[in-house]
Amino acid sequence: AKIPERRYPTAGEFALSFKEALFVEESSSTAVDRTFIGGVEDEEHTFLESMPFEDGATNIAPKTQEYNSIDVGARTILSRAREAVRETQGDLAIIVQSVITNVQDLREQSKYQPRPEESPYKSLESYDISDNRLFFGREDAIDEMLDRAPFTKFSVLHAESGAGKTSLIRAGLMPRLLAGGFFPVYVAVRRRLPHEAIKHILLPDISLAPHMANAPLRTYLKGVAEAVGPNREIFIFLDQFETFFTDVFTDEERSESIRELAECLDDTGLQVRIIIAMRTEYFGLLASFQPAIPQPFAREFLLRRLNRQEAERAMTLPVEAMDYEYEEGLVPQILGDLVDDSGEIAPPQLQLVGTALIESLPE
User: Fold this and answer.
1) Which residues contact 358 (CB under 8 A, 6 or more apart)?
2) Cα distance between residue 22 and residue 33, in whole Å
3) Helices 194-202, 251-266: crossing angle, 10 deg rounding
4) Strand runs (DSSP E) across the chain, as ranges?
5) Which pLDDT tens digit goes with each residue over 140-181?
6) When comparing pLDDT for 4 and 184, which is higher?
7) Which of 222, 122, 232 is CA-nearest to residue 171?
C-alpha cells in the first residue's frame, strides 16, 4: 500500500492516479504520462474506453473526440459524490450536494472557449480557470508545486505583488488538480476569517443546515471527504493571505482561525492540503502560526518573475491559441526591452505590452 503522505511523488503519478480513479487501463502506448500544459491539452486519444457516468453520458465517445482531461476529472468526482448523496443524510448530505454544485461550476468554467474577438492577454487582470487554454509560462512552477504537494499538508506560495500568484492557482494548479480527480477549493481572504470563508464556500446558504452554523471547519471537511471519496485529497487555496495580518481581524480572531486550520491538518484521517498564497513581505508573520502549525516556513515556494524562456511562452503561445502570430524577430525585441538587470520580466509588463499590441490591430 502507498503511504498516504507520499502517495503521488510526481505530477506524472498524479496523472496515473487519475487514470486509476477511472478504472481504465492503457490500450495504447500513445497516451500515458503526458503533461497538461496550462491546465489542459486537448488532442485525440485512444486509451480511454467509453465508461458511463451518473448523468448518463460517457467519458469519451467516440474515441476520436477531443479528450478534455479537466472535464473527465470533474465527472469522476461528480460520479463519486452522487453516490455519496444516496448514502448520507441530514447536514452531511447537504455538504455533499454543495460539493457537487461547486464541481459542476468549475467544470463549466473550464470548458470556456475564448471568442475570436477576445484578447489572448489579460492586461492587469488575473487568469481564471476559464482561461486555462491561454495560460502559459508557468509550467515549471506548476510541476514543482505539484511535485511537493504529496509531502506536506501545509505549504506557502509567496511572491512580490503582481508576480501572478492568483493566476498560477486558478488557471494553472486548479485545472490540473481537477483533471486528476482532486477537489480544489479557492478562497480569497478579505472580510471573512479564512476558516469561515471556507465554510461559506462549502455551504453558502446556512439556512439549509442551521445546525452547522457553529460547527468546526473539520466537520465540514469530513462531509467533503465523503463526497470526493477515500484517497482523494482536498486542496484548499487561501489567496491574498496578507489580509489576515492586517487590522481587518483581531488577534483573537486570528488565533481562532489558526486553531481551526490546525485541527484539520492534525486529523490524520482527513486528506486535506492547505496552500497559503501571500506577498513575500508578510511571509515572516507566519511565525504566529506556531506552535499550532509547526514549522510553517518549511514548505515554501517563492514565485519569481518570468525568466526569458517563460516570458516567451507566455507571450507567444496565447497568441497562437487565438490564431495570431508575431512578425519574425518582434518577440525577442520586446523581451529585450522588458528584461530587468536580473534577467527576469515582470508579468504585468508583459501583459500590458501584449494587450496594447492586440488592441492596436485593425478591426
Assistant:
1) 119, 120, 121, 324
2) 15
3) 60
4) 154-159, 183-188, 234-239, 272-279, 300-302, 306-307, 344-345
5) 999 999 998 888 899 999 999 999 999 999 999 999 999 999
6) 184
7) 122
